[in-house]
Request: fold
Amino acid sequence: MEHRPAVIIIDMLNDFVTGKLAAKRAEHIIPNLKRLIEEARKHDVPVIYSNDAHYPQDVEVTRKWGSHAVKGTKGAEVIPELQPLAKDYIVEKRTYSGFYETGLDPLLRSLYKGEGAKTVILGGLHTNICIRHTAADAFFRGYNIIIAKDGVEAFTQEDHEQGLKYLEYVYNAKIMTVDEIIREFK
Reply:
């Protein structure tokens, strides 16, 4: 991959996969994300987990979705199948975007011995919500964006497909399968 990539796994948390806001459709992307993460690690591509970690009083988000992914609870933990390793990075977020008032951008700029990541590879939940808002902020900051087509999902097929179209059209995101992304690592 020509541009220093970083894999960002968004909200693959217990509350989103099996808990309070479970998206049953998320189950089929777990093996794909597992492969993506393992191959990224093998090729020294940084893996970053962008995780909701709400405070109970986060009304901006909880007013819409109810209390979920509260910091320090089981619901806010990454699902067992995709557990971060010590060498991975975890960046907590309190809104839809992984960039908004978090340390994600400074982290990305510090990677590759200070040269910074140039491409973000997004996977996780939800194509039309947190993936979309994180992609928007990546676009505004000048990153190239790749969406793992079979590594993102939404509550409905329609939401997923509309999300992919929007990401490609508005943010010039490359939509690629996990296998295509992995081939780029090599």
